[in-house]
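Researcher: Let's try something more involved. This one mixes different molecule types, so please make sure each is placed in the same coordinate frame as the others.
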Amino acid sequence: MAEYLGLTVDIPANDPDHIEYLQGAGEGRLVLQRCSDCNLLRYPPGPACPYCQSLEREWEEVSGRGTIYSYEIVTQAINPAYRELVPYAVVLVELDEQRGVPDEHEALRVISSLVDGDGAPEAEENVAIGARVEAEFADLGDGLGLPRFRLSDETPEHELWQFPS
Amino acid sequence: MAGLKDQYAIVGIGETEYSRDSGRTTRAMGVEAVRSAMRDAGLGPDEVDGMLSYHGNDSTASPTIATDLGIRLNFYMDCSGGGSSTEALIGIACGVIEAGMCKTVAIFRSMNGYTEARIGGTGRQAPAFRSGALQQGIYGMSSAAQSFAPSFMRHMYEYGTTSEQLAHVKVAHSKHASNNPKAFYKERVSVQDVLASRWIVKPLHLLDCCVETDNSTAIIVTSVERARDMAQSPAYIMGVAGRTSKPSVGYHWRSGPISRVAGHYARPIVFGTAGIGVDDIDVTGSYDAFSFTTMLQLEAYGFCAEGEGGDYVSSGIIELGGDRPNNTSGGHLCEAYTHGMNLVIENVRQLRGKIDDYCPNWQDGEHTYDYSEGGCRQVRDAEITMNLGWAMPATGSALIMRR
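Model: All components are placed in one shared frame. Result:
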Protein backbone atom coordinates (compact mmCIF):
# COMPACT_ATOMS: atom_id res chain seq x y z
CA MET A 1 0.00 0.00 0.00
CA ALA A 2 1.26 3.47 -0.90
CA GLU A 3 2.24 5.68 2.02
CA TYR A 4 3.21 9.29 2.70
CA LEU A 5 4.54 10.58 6.04
CA GLY A 6 3.53 7.29 7.64
CA LEU A 7 -0.10 7.49 6.48
CA THR A 8 -1.72 5.24 3.90
CA VAL A 9 -2.44 6.83 0.53
CA ASP A 10 -5.67 5.09 -0.42
CA ILE A 11 -6.91 5.98 -3.91
CA PRO A 12 -9.69 3.64 -5.05
CA ALA A 13 -9.41 1.74 -8.32
CA ASN A 14 -12.51 3.50 -9.67
CA ASP A 15 -10.74 6.90 -9.58
CA PRO A 16 -8.39 6.85 -12.61
CA ASP A 17 -8.17 10.66 -12.67
CA HIS A 18 -6.16 10.61 -9.47
CA ILE A 19 -4.40 7.26 -9.88
CA GLU A 20 -2.97 8.25 -13.26
CA TYR A 21 -1.88 11.62 -11.89
CA LEU A 22 0.07 9.90 -9.11
CA GLN A 23 1.41 7.26 -11.51
CA GLY A 24 2.89 10.05 -13.63
CA ALA A 25 4.54 11.48 -10.55
CA GLY A 26 5.82 7.99 -9.74
CA GLU A 27 7.72 8.16 -13.03
CA GLY A 28 9.10 11.59 -12.14
CA ARG A 29 6.75 13.46 -14.45
CA LEU A 30 4.21 16.17 -13.65
CA VAL A 31 1.26 15.18 -15.81
CA LEU A 32 -1.95 17.11 -16.33
CA GLN A 33 -5.12 16.34 -18.25
CA ARG A 34 -5.52 18.02 -21.65
CA CYS A 35 -9.04 18.25 -23.04
CA SER A 36 -9.33 16.37 -26.33
CA ASP A 37 -11.96 18.81 -27.59
CA CYS A 38 -11.00 22.38 -26.60
CA ASN A 39 -7.34 21.51 -26.09
CA LEU A 40 -6.97 23.25 -22.72
CA LEU A 41 -4.98 21.81 -19.84
CA ARG A 42 -6.66 21.64 -16.45
CA TYR A 43 -5.77 21.18 -12.80
CA PRO A 44 -6.81 19.55 -10.54
CA PRO A 45 -7.56 16.24 -12.26
CA GLY A 46 -11.24 15.56 -12.81
CA PRO A 47 -13.80 13.78 -14.96
CA ALA A 48 -14.79 16.76 -17.15
CA CYS A 49 -13.27 19.81 -18.80
CA PRO A 50 -14.48 22.88 -16.83
CA TYR A 51 -14.12 25.01 -19.97
CA CYS A 52 -16.10 22.95 -22.52
CA GLN A 53 -17.59 20.07 -20.45
CA SER A 54 -15.96 17.43 -22.63
CA LEU A 55 -15.38 14.06 -20.99
CA GLU A 56 -12.50 13.16 -23.34
CA ARG A 57 -8.93 13.86 -22.20
CA GLU A 58 -5.34 12.78 -22.52
CA TRP A 59 -2.46 13.02 -20.09
CA GLU A 60 0.39 15.34 -20.95
CA GLU A 61 3.68 16.04 -19.21
CA VAL A 62 4.28 19.71 -18.35
CA SER A 63 7.54 21.42 -17.46
CA GLY A 64 6.97 21.44 -13.72
CA ARG A 65 8.28 25.01 -13.62
CA GLY A 66 6.40 27.86 -12.09
CA THR A 67 6.30 30.81 -9.72
CA ILE A 68 5.12 31.05 -6.11
CA TYR A 69 1.82 32.94 -6.33
CA SER A 70 1.06 32.86 -2.60
CA TYR A 71 1.96 30.81 0.45
CA GLU A 72 1.51 30.24 4.16
CA ILE A 73 3.77 29.12 6.98
CA VAL A 74 2.09 26.54 9.20
CA THR A 75 3.30 26.73 12.79
CA GLN A 76 0.55 24.62 14.35
CA ALA A 77 -0.08 21.37 12.50
CA ILE A 78 -3.57 19.84 12.47
CA ASN A 79 -2.72 16.54 10.79
CA PRO A 80 -0.54 14.55 13.23
CA ALA A 81 1.63 13.47 10.29
CA TYR A 82 2.84 17.06 10.04
CA ARG A 83 3.39 17.67 13.74
CA GLU A 84 7.15 17.11 13.60
CA LEU A 85 7.54 19.21 10.45
CA VAL A 86 6.48 22.65 11.70
CA PRO A 87 7.14 25.30 10.68
CA TYR A 88 6.51 24.29 7.11
CA ALA A 89 5.50 26.18 3.97
CA VAL A 90 2.48 25.40 1.84
CA VAL A 91 2.82 27.16 -1.50
CA LEU A 92 0.41 28.04 -4.28
CA VAL A 93 2.43 27.62 -7.47
CA GLU A 94 1.36 29.12 -10.77
CA LEU A 95 2.67 26.82 -13.49
CA ASP A 96 4.33 28.31 -16.58
CA GLU A 97 1.90 26.65 -18.96
CA GLN A 98 -1.38 28.30 -19.89
CA ARG A 99 -1.13 31.42 -17.69
CA GLY A 100 -3.99 33.87 -18.26
CA VAL A 101 -5.89 31.32 -20.34
CA PRO A 102 -8.82 31.12 -21.09
CA ASP A 103 -9.12 34.54 -19.42
CA GLU A 104 -6.80 36.83 -17.51
CA HIS A 105 -7.87 35.45 -14.13
CA GLU A 106 -7.30 31.78 -14.92
CA ALA A 107 -4.12 29.78 -14.54
CA LEU A 108 -2.89 26.31 -13.62
CA ARG A 109 -2.34 26.84 -9.89
CA VAL A 110 -1.20 24.01 -7.68
CA ILE A 111 -1.13 23.77 -3.88
CA SER A 112 1.96 21.89 -2.77
CA SER A 113 4.82 21.59 -0.31
CA LEU A 114 8.01 23.59 -0.77
CA VAL A 115 10.90 21.31 0.17
CA ASP A 116 14.69 21.53 0.17
CA GLY A 117 17.15 19.20 -1.55
CA ASP A 118 16.61 16.57 1.14
CA GLY A 119 12.83 16.69 0.89
CA ALA A 120 12.51 18.49 4.23
CA PRO A 121 10.45 21.71 4.55
CA GLU A 122 12.26 24.64 2.94
CA ALA A 123 13.47 27.21 5.46
CA GLU A 124 10.96 30.00 6.00
CA GLU A 125 13.43 32.74 5.10
CA ASN A 126 13.66 31.33 1.56
CA VAL A 127 9.93 31.28 0.85
CA ALA A 128 8.66 34.26 -1.14
CA ILE A 129 6.01 35.29 -3.63
CA GLY A 130 7.69 35.59 -7.02
CA ALA A 131 10.29 32.90 -6.37
CA ARG A 132 10.80 30.41 -9.18
CA VAL A 133 10.24 26.74 -8.40
CA GLU A 134 10.44 23.36 -10.07
CA ALA A 135 8.65 20.10 -9.43
CA GLU A 136 10.22 17.22 -7.55
CA PHE A 137 8.59 13.96 -6.57
CA ALA A 138 8.20 12.00 -3.36
CA ASP A 139 8.05 8.22 -3.73
CA LEU A 140 4.82 6.82 -2.29
CA GLY A 141 5.48 3.17 -3.19
CA ASP A 142 3.30 0.99 -5.46
CA GLY A 143 4.54 2.97 -8.47
CA LEU A 144 2.93 6.18 -7.22
CA GLY A 145 4.59 9.53 -6.54
CA LEU A 146 3.54 12.89 -5.12
CA PRO A 147 4.47 16.15 -6.86
CA ARG A 148 6.14 18.71 -4.59
CA PHE A 149 8.20 21.78 -5.41
CA ARG A 150 11.65 23.10 -4.60
CA LEU A 151 13.28 26.44 -5.30
CA SER A 152 15.00 26.62 -8.67
CA ASP A 153 18.06 28.71 -9.53
CA GLU A 154 16.15 30.76 -12.11
CA THR A 155 15.92 34.53 -11.78
CA PRO A 156 12.76 35.52 -9.88
CA GLU A 157 9.90 36.67 -12.02
CA HIS A 158 9.63 39.94 -10.12
CA GLU A 159 10.96 41.41 -6.91
CA LEU A 160 10.49 38.84 -4.19
CA TRP A 161 7.85 39.53 -1.52
CA GLN A 162 7.88 37.98 1.93
CA PHE A 163 5.41 38.23 4.77
CA PRO A 164 6.98 40.68 7.24
CA SER A 165 7.01 38.65 10.47
CA MET B 1 -37.32 37.28 -4.48
CA ALA B 2 -37.70 40.82 -5.78
CA GLY B 3 -41.43 40.58 -5.17
CA LEU B 4 -40.89 39.15 -1.69
CA LYS B 5 -39.08 42.12 -0.19
CA ASP B 6 -40.56 42.90 3.24
CA GLN B 7 -42.98 39.96 2.96
CA TYR B 8 -41.18 37.75 5.49
CA ALA B 9 -39.69 38.46 8.89
CA ILE B 10 -37.69 37.03 11.74
CA VAL B 11 -39.99 36.93 14.74
CA GLY B 12 -38.15 34.77 17.25
CA ILE B 13 -34.57 34.22 18.38
CA GLY B 14 -33.12 31.82 20.91
CA GLU B 15 -29.78 30.62 22.15
CA THR B 16 -28.19 28.51 24.85
CA GLU B 17 -25.28 29.57 26.98
CA TYR B 18 -22.06 30.03 24.99
CA SER B 19 -19.53 27.80 26.73
CA ARG B 20 -16.70 25.35 26.40
CA ASP B 21 -18.26 22.76 28.65
CA SER B 22 -21.92 22.34 27.76
CA GLY B 23 -22.02 18.91 29.39
CA ARG B 24 -25.08 18.26 27.24
CA THR B 25 -26.02 16.66 23.95
CA THR B 26 -26.64 18.69 20.80
CA ARG B 27 -30.21 17.37 21.15
CA ALA B 28 -30.72 18.93 24.58
CA MET B 29 -29.16 22.20 23.44
CA GLY B 30 -31.17 22.29 20.20
CA VAL B 31 -34.38 21.79 22.16
CA GLU B 32 -33.50 24.67 24.48
CA ALA B 33 -32.64 27.06 21.65
CA VAL B 34 -35.76 26.30 19.57
CA ARG B 35 -37.96 26.45 22.67
CA SER B 36 -36.41 29.76 23.62
CA ALA B 37 -37.03 31.20 20.14
CA MET B 38 -40.66 30.01 20.24
CA ARG B 39 -41.22 31.67 23.61
CA ASP B 40 -39.51 34.82 22.35
CA ALA B 41 -42.03 34.95 19.50
CA GLY B 42 -44.91 33.86 21.69
CA LEU B 43 -45.52 30.70 19.66
CA GLY B 44 -46.84 27.37 20.87
CA PRO B 45 -45.99 23.97 19.36
CA ASP B 46 -49.03 24.02 17.10
CA GLU B 47 -47.88 27.32 15.55
CA VAL B 48 -44.50 26.14 14.23
CA ASP B 49 -44.86 23.73 11.31
CA GLY B 50 -41.51 23.98 9.52
CA MET B 51 -37.98 23.21 10.66
CA LEU B 52 -34.54 23.61 9.08
CA SER B 53 -31.09 22.87 10.45
CA TYR B 54 -27.55 22.57 9.19
CA HIS B 55 -24.70 20.44 10.38
CA GLY B 56 -21.46 18.66 9.62
CA ASN B 57 -22.49 15.32 11.14
CA ASP B 58 -22.21 17.05 14.51
CA SER B 59 -25.80 17.89 15.35
CA THR B 60 -29.23 16.40 16.09
CA ALA B 61 -31.73 16.44 13.25
CA SER B 62 -35.08 18.25 13.07
CA PRO B 63 -37.36 15.21 13.57
CA THR B 64 -35.84 14.58 16.99
CA ILE B 65 -36.00 18.23 18.12
CA ALA B 66 -39.60 18.54 16.85
CA THR B 67 -40.65 15.36 18.60
CA ASP B 68 -39.06 16.47 21.86
CA LEU B 69 -41.04 19.72 21.70
CA GLY B 70 -44.34 18.16 20.62
CA ILE B 71 -44.28 19.83 17.20
CA ARG B 72 -45.89 18.18 14.14
CA LEU B 73 -44.14 19.41 11.01
CA ASN B 74 -45.41 20.09 7.50
CA PHE B 75 -41.85 20.63 6.28
CA TYR B 76 -38.38 19.85 7.52
CA MET B 77 -34.90 19.50 6.10
CA ASP B 78 -31.47 19.05 7.63
CA CYS B 79 -28.74 20.42 5.38
CA SER B 80 -25.05 19.72 5.27
CA GLY B 81 -23.12 22.93 5.78
CA GLY B 82 -21.33 25.30 8.08
CA GLY B 83 -20.73 29.01 7.70
CA SER B 84 -22.97 30.99 5.35
CA SER B 85 -25.82 28.51 5.92
CA THR B 86 -27.74 30.84 8.25
CA GLU B 87 -28.68 33.39 5.60
CA ALA B 88 -29.23 30.69 2.97
CA LEU B 89 -31.65 28.81 5.22
CA ILE B 90 -33.53 32.02 6.04
CA GLY B 91 -34.01 32.40 2.28
CA ILE B 92 -35.15 28.79 1.98
CA ALA B 93 -37.63 29.36 4.81
CA CYS B 94 -39.15 32.32 2.93
CA GLY B 95 -39.34 30.12 -0.18
CA VAL B 96 -41.10 27.17 1.38
CA ILE B 97 -43.63 29.43 3.10
CA GLU B 98 -44.21 31.26 -0.18
CA ALA B 99 -44.71 27.88 -1.88
CA GLY B 100 -47.45 27.08 0.60
CA MET B 101 -45.57 24.15 2.08
CA CYS B 102 -45.77 25.45 5.65
CA LYS B 103 -46.45 28.65 7.58
CA THR B 104 -43.72 29.24 10.18
CA VAL B 105 -40.19 27.82 10.16
CA ALA B 106 -37.76 27.34 13.05
CA ILE B 107 -34.10 27.25 11.93
CA PHE B 108 -31.50 25.91 14.34
CA ARG B 109 -27.82 25.02 14.59
CA SER B 110 -26.60 22.91 17.52
CA MET B 111 -22.93 22.08 18.02
CA ASN B 112 -20.54 21.05 20.72
CA GLY B 113 -17.88 22.90 18.78
CA TYR B 114 -15.32 22.68 21.54
CA THR B 115 -15.97 19.49 23.49
CA GLU B 116 -16.98 17.21 20.58
CA ALA B 117 -16.48 18.17 16.94
CA ARG B 118 -13.86 20.87 16.58
CA ILE B 119 -13.65 22.64 13.23
CA GLY B 120 -10.67 21.33 11.33
CA GLY B 121 -10.56 18.16 13.38
CA THR B 122 -9.40 17.28 16.84
CA GLY B 123 -5.98 16.04 15.77
CA ARG B 124 -6.74 12.75 17.48
CA GLN B 125 -7.41 10.79 14.34
CA ALA B 126 -4.81 10.08 11.70
CA PRO B 127 -6.86 9.15 8.63
CA ALA B 128 -5.44 7.87 5.38
CA PHE B 129 -4.89 10.31 2.53
CA ARG B 130 -7.72 9.67 0.06
CA SER B 131 -8.57 11.23 -3.32
CA GLY B 132 -10.08 14.33 -1.76
CA ALA B 133 -6.85 15.04 0.12
CA LEU B 134 -4.58 15.12 -2.92
CA GLN B 135 -5.06 18.81 -3.72
CA GLN B 136 -4.54 20.17 -0.20
CA GLY B 137 -4.65 17.80 2.76
CA ILE B 138 -1.68 15.68 1.81
CA TYR B 139 0.45 18.85 1.82
CA GLY B 140 -0.49 19.66 5.41
CA MET B 141 -3.30 22.07 4.52
CA SER B 142 -6.47 20.91 6.24
CA SER B 143 -7.99 23.36 8.73
CA ALA B 144 -10.01 26.41 7.76
CA ALA B 145 -7.14 28.70 8.74
CA GLN B 146 -4.70 26.71 6.61
CA SER B 147 -7.11 26.60 3.67
CA PHE B 148 -7.76 30.35 3.64
CA ALA B 149 -4.31 31.71 4.53
CA PRO B 150 -2.86 31.93 0.98
CA SER B 151 -5.80 34.13 -0.06
CA PHE B 152 -5.16 36.39 2.94
CA MET B 153 -1.42 36.48 2.17
CA ARG B 154 -2.07 37.43 -1.44
CA HIS B 155 -4.19 40.38 -0.30
CA MET B 156 -1.25 41.62 1.78
CA TYR B 157 1.04 41.23 -1.22
CA GLU B 158 -1.29 42.94 -3.69
CA TYR B 159 -2.49 45.82 -1.52
CA GLY B 160 0.03 46.25 1.30
CA THR B 161 -2.51 45.19 3.92
CA THR B 162 -0.84 44.75 7.31
CA SER B 163 -1.27 42.53 10.36
CA GLU B 164 -1.72 45.67 12.43
CA GLN B 165 -4.69 46.78 10.32
CA LEU B 166 -6.31 43.37 10.68
CA ALA B 167 -5.76 43.41 14.45
CA HIS B 168 -8.27 46.26 14.65
CA VAL B 169 -11.04 43.78 13.79
CA LYS B 170 -10.32 41.80 16.95
CA VAL B 171 -9.90 45.01 18.94
CA ALA B 172 -13.33 46.25 17.81
CA HIS B 173 -15.11 42.96 18.41
CA SER B 174 -13.52 42.57 21.86
CA LYS B 175 -14.73 46.07 22.73
CA HIS B 176 -18.24 44.99 21.77
CA ALA B 177 -17.98 41.74 23.70
CA SER B 178 -17.02 43.59 26.85
CA ASN B 179 -20.58 44.95 26.82
CA ASN B 180 -22.16 41.53 26.24
CA PRO B 181 -22.89 39.41 29.33
CA LYS B 182 -23.21 36.31 27.12
CA ALA B 183 -19.81 36.63 25.43
CA PHE B 184 -17.29 33.85 26.01
CA TYR B 185 -14.34 36.29 25.83
CA LYS B 186 -15.31 39.61 27.42
CA GLU B 187 -11.84 41.05 27.86
CA ARG B 188 -10.85 44.00 25.69
CA VAL B 189 -7.61 43.48 23.79
CA SER B 190 -5.19 45.87 22.10
CA VAL B 191 -3.54 45.78 18.69
CA GLN B 192 -0.35 44.83 20.48
CA ASP B 193 -2.10 41.90 22.20
CA VAL B 194 -3.10 40.54 18.80
CA LEU B 195 0.34 40.99 17.28
CA ALA B 196 2.02 39.38 20.30
CA SER B 197 -0.22 36.30 20.29
CA ARG B 198 1.34 33.13 18.93
CA TRP B 199 1.25 32.19 15.27
CA ILE B 200 -1.25 29.59 14.07
CA VAL B 201 -0.48 29.75 10.36
CA LYS B 202 1.18 32.87 9.02
CA PRO B 203 -0.32 35.41 8.39
CA LEU B 204 -2.77 34.46 11.18
CA HIS B 205 -2.03 35.00 14.86
CA LEU B 206 -4.06 33.15 17.49
CA LEU B 207 -6.15 36.27 18.13
CA ASP B 208 -6.95 36.61 14.42
CA CYS B 209 -8.87 33.33 14.80
CA CYS B 210 -12.34 32.81 16.27
CA VAL B 211 -13.20 31.13 19.54
CA GLU B 212 -14.48 27.52 19.57
CA THR B 213 -17.56 26.97 21.73
CA ASP B 214 -20.48 24.65 22.56
CA ASN B 215 -23.89 26.15 21.84
CA SER B 216 -27.20 26.03 20.02
CA THR B 217 -28.98 28.94 18.35
CA ALA B 218 -32.39 29.32 16.70
CA ILE B 219 -34.27 31.76 14.47
CA ILE B 220 -37.98 31.72 13.55
CA VAL B 221 -39.17 32.99 10.15
CA THR B 222 -42.77 33.65 9.15
CA SER B 223 -44.86 35.83 6.84
CA VAL B 224 -45.48 39.47 7.73
CA GLU B 225 -49.21 38.79 8.11
CA ARG B 226 -48.49 36.36 10.92
CA ALA B 227 -45.59 38.38 12.25
CA ARG B 228 -47.85 41.28 13.18
CA ASP B 229 -49.62 39.17 15.81
CA MET B 230 -46.48 37.99 17.56
CA ALA B 231 -44.77 39.06 20.74
CA GLN B 232 -41.84 40.97 19.25
CA SER B 233 -41.60 43.65 16.59
CA PRO B 234 -40.58 41.85 13.38
CA ALA B 235 -37.21 42.15 11.69
CA TYR B 236 -38.32 42.46 8.06
CA ILE B 237 -36.30 40.59 5.43
CA MET B 238 -35.46 43.00 2.63
CA GLY B 239 -33.14 40.77 0.64
CA VAL B 240 -31.18 37.55 0.86
CA ALA B 241 -28.48 35.75 -1.12
CA GLY B 242 -27.60 32.15 -0.33
CA ARG B 243 -24.37 30.24 -0.83
CA THR B 244 -23.26 32.30 -3.80
CA SER B 245 -20.06 30.90 -5.27
CA LYS B 246 -16.98 32.05 -7.11
CA PRO B 247 -15.93 30.28 -10.30
CA SER B 248 -14.18 26.97 -9.55
CA VAL B 249 -15.91 26.83 -6.17
CA GLY B 250 -14.32 23.53 -5.22
CA TYR B 251 -10.86 24.83 -6.01
CA HIS B 252 -11.06 28.59 -6.15
CA TRP B 253 -7.33 29.15 -6.68
CA ARG B 254 -7.87 28.40 -10.35
CA SER B 255 -9.88 31.58 -10.88
CA GLY B 256 -8.43 34.80 -9.61
CA PRO B 257 -8.21 37.26 -8.08
CA ILE B 258 -7.80 34.82 -5.21
CA SER B 259 -8.25 37.54 -2.58
CA ARG B 260 -11.67 38.43 -4.02
CA VAL B 261 -14.37 36.53 -2.16
CA ALA B 262 -17.83 35.25 -3.08
CA GLY B 263 -19.57 38.35 -1.74
CA HIS B 264 -18.53 39.94 -5.03
CA TYR B 265 -21.23 37.80 -6.64
CA ALA B 266 -23.78 37.96 -3.80
CA ARG B 267 -23.66 41.75 -3.70
CA PRO B 268 -25.85 42.55 -6.74
CA ILE B 269 -28.36 39.87 -5.73
CA VAL B 270 -28.92 41.03 -2.16
CA PHE B 271 -28.77 44.77 -2.79
CA GLY B 272 -30.84 44.36 -5.94
CA THR B 273 -33.66 42.70 -4.06
CA ALA B 274 -33.50 45.09 -1.13
CA GLY B 275 -33.41 48.10 -3.45
CA ILE B 276 -30.89 49.94 -1.27
CA GLY B 277 -27.13 50.53 -1.20
CA VAL B 278 -24.27 50.29 1.26
CA ASP B 279 -24.84 53.81 2.56
CA ASP B 280 -28.24 52.74 3.88
CA ILE B 281 -26.76 50.06 6.15
CA ASP B 282 -26.44 51.04 9.82
CA VAL B 283 -24.89 47.86 11.25
CA THR B 284 -23.01 45.00 9.60
CA GLY B 285 -22.46 41.42 10.70
CA SER B 286 -19.47 40.36 8.62
CA TYR B 287 -18.57 36.77 9.49
CA ASP B 288 -15.44 36.71 11.60
CA ALA B 289 -14.09 33.20 11.53
CA PHE B 290 -10.87 35.19 11.11
CA SER B 291 -10.10 38.89 11.19
CA PHE B 292 -9.46 38.65 7.45
CA THR B 293 -12.88 37.22 6.61
CA THR B 294 -14.58 40.29 8.09
CA MET B 295 -12.34 42.60 6.05
CA LEU B 296 -12.52 40.73 2.74
CA GLN B 297 -16.30 40.60 2.83
CA LEU B 298 -16.70 44.28 3.68
CA GLU B 299 -14.62 44.92 0.57
CA ALA B 300 -16.55 42.48 -1.60
CA TYR B 301 -19.91 44.02 -0.73
CA GLY B 302 -18.64 47.50 -1.50
CA PHE B 303 -18.36 49.06 1.96
CA CYS B 304 -14.93 50.09 0.74
CA ALA B 305 -13.04 49.64 -2.51
CA GLU B 306 -11.22 46.41 -3.34
CA GLY B 307 -7.83 46.60 -1.65
CA GLU B 308 -8.86 49.25 0.88
CA GLY B 309 -10.21 46.86 3.50
CA GLY B 310 -7.18 47.33 5.75
CA ASP B 311 -7.80 51.06 5.96
CA TYR B 312 -11.53 50.53 6.45
CA VAL B 313 -11.34 48.12 9.38
CA SER B 314 -8.66 50.15 11.16
CA SER B 315 -10.46 53.50 10.75
CA GLY B 316 -12.84 53.16 13.70
CA ILE B 317 -15.89 52.79 11.45
CA ILE B 318 -16.54 49.20 12.55
CA GLU B 319 -16.48 49.97 16.29
CA LEU B 320 -19.47 50.88 18.44
CA GLY B 321 -19.63 54.64 18.22
CA GLY B 322 -18.32 54.49 14.66
CA ASP B 323 -20.43 55.05 11.57
CA ARG B 324 -21.19 51.40 10.87
CA PRO B 325 -20.34 49.00 13.69
CA ASN B 326 -19.66 45.37 12.83
CA ASN B 327 -20.58 42.34 14.96
CA THR B 328 -21.75 44.30 17.97
CA SER B 329 -22.06 41.09 20.04
CA GLY B 330 -18.35 40.42 19.72
CA GLY B 331 -19.08 37.93 16.96
CA HIS B 332 -17.21 34.71 16.36
CA LEU B 333 -13.94 36.22 17.54
CA CYS B 334 -15.28 36.87 21.04
CA GLU B 335 -18.92 35.97 21.75
CA ALA B 336 -19.10 32.40 20.39
CA TYR B 337 -18.68 30.32 17.26
CA THR B 338 -22.09 29.34 15.92
CA HIS B 339 -21.54 29.13 12.16
CA GLY B 340 -23.20 32.50 11.66
CA MET B 341 -26.39 32.28 13.71
CA ASN B 342 -25.37 34.59 16.56
CA LEU B 343 -24.43 37.30 14.06
CA VAL B 344 -27.99 37.36 12.67
CA ILE B 345 -29.52 37.08 16.15
CA GLU B 346 -27.52 40.13 17.23
CA ASN B 347 -28.80 42.19 14.31
CA VAL B 348 -32.40 41.20 15.07
CA ARG B 349 -31.86 42.52 18.60
CA GLN B 350 -30.36 45.73 17.21
CA LEU B 351 -33.46 46.29 15.06
CA ARG B 352 -35.73 45.66 18.03
CA GLY B 353 -33.76 48.23 20.01
CA LYS B 354 -33.44 45.64 22.76
CA ILE B 355 -29.80 44.67 22.84
CA ASP B 356 -29.12 42.60 25.98
CA ASP B 357 -26.21 44.65 27.31
CA TYR B 358 -25.43 45.99 30.79
CA CYS B 359 -27.94 48.87 30.60
CA PRO B 360 -30.31 48.43 33.56
CA ASN B 361 -33.52 48.68 31.54
CA TRP B 362 -32.44 47.15 28.24
CA GLN B 363 -35.52 44.91 28.25
CA ASP B 364 -37.65 48.02 27.93
CA GLY B 365 -35.47 49.32 25.12
CA GLU B 366 -33.79 51.91 27.35
CA HIS B 367 -30.11 52.36 26.56
CA THR B 368 -27.37 54.70 27.72
CA TYR B 369 -25.35 54.63 24.48
CA ASP B 370 -22.28 54.74 26.68
CA TYR B 371 -19.97 52.27 24.97
CA SER B 372 -17.30 52.16 27.64
CA GLU B 373 -16.44 48.78 29.13
CA GLY B 374 -19.33 47.08 30.88
CA GLY B 375 -21.85 49.45 29.28
CA CYS B 376 -24.12 49.67 26.28
CA ARG B 377 -23.92 48.08 22.84
CA GLN B 378 -27.16 49.24 21.30
CA VAL B 379 -26.63 51.24 18.10
CA ARG B 380 -28.74 54.40 18.21
CA ASP B 381 -31.66 54.31 15.73
CA ALA B 382 -30.52 51.15 13.98
CA GLU B 383 -32.92 50.82 11.07
CA ILE B 384 -31.22 48.55 8.55
CA THR B 385 -28.69 45.78 9.17
CA MET B 386 -26.74 43.51 6.85
CA ASN B 387 -25.21 40.09 7.48
CA LEU B 388 -22.30 38.90 5.35
CA GLY B 389 -22.00 35.14 5.75
CA TRP B 390 -18.81 33.25 4.96
CA ALA B 391 -18.16 29.59 4.27
CA MET B 392 -14.84 29.95 2.47
CA PRO B 393 -13.35 32.42 0.01
CA ALA B 394 -15.44 30.88 -2.74
CA THR B 395 -18.82 30.68 -0.98
CA GLY B 396 -20.86 33.29 0.87
CA SER B 397 -24.37 34.43 1.75
CA ALA B 398 -25.97 37.73 2.70
CA LEU B 399 -29.09 39.07 4.42
CA ILE B 400 -30.49 42.59 4.70
CA MET B 401 -33.11 43.29 7.38
CA ARG B 402 -34.98 46.40 8.53
CA ARG B 403 -37.03 47.23 11.56
